[in-house]
Amino acid sequence: MILTETAALTGRRLLRLRRSPGELFAVTLTPVTMVVVMGYLLNKSIAMPDGTSFLDFTMAGVGAQVALAGFGTSAIAVAEDLRGGLVDRFRSLPIGRTPVLLAQSLCDLLLLAVGMAIALAVGWLLGWRIHTGIVAGLAGFGLLLALAFLLSWTGILAGLWIRSTPAVNSLSGLVLVVGSFVSTAFVPPDGLPGWLHAIASWSPVSTVSTACRLLWGNPVADTGDSLAVVHAVPVAGVTITILLAVVVTAASRVFRSVSEKTP
Question: Is the distance from CB of 196 to CB of 184 less than 8 angstroms?
Answer without folding.
Answer: no
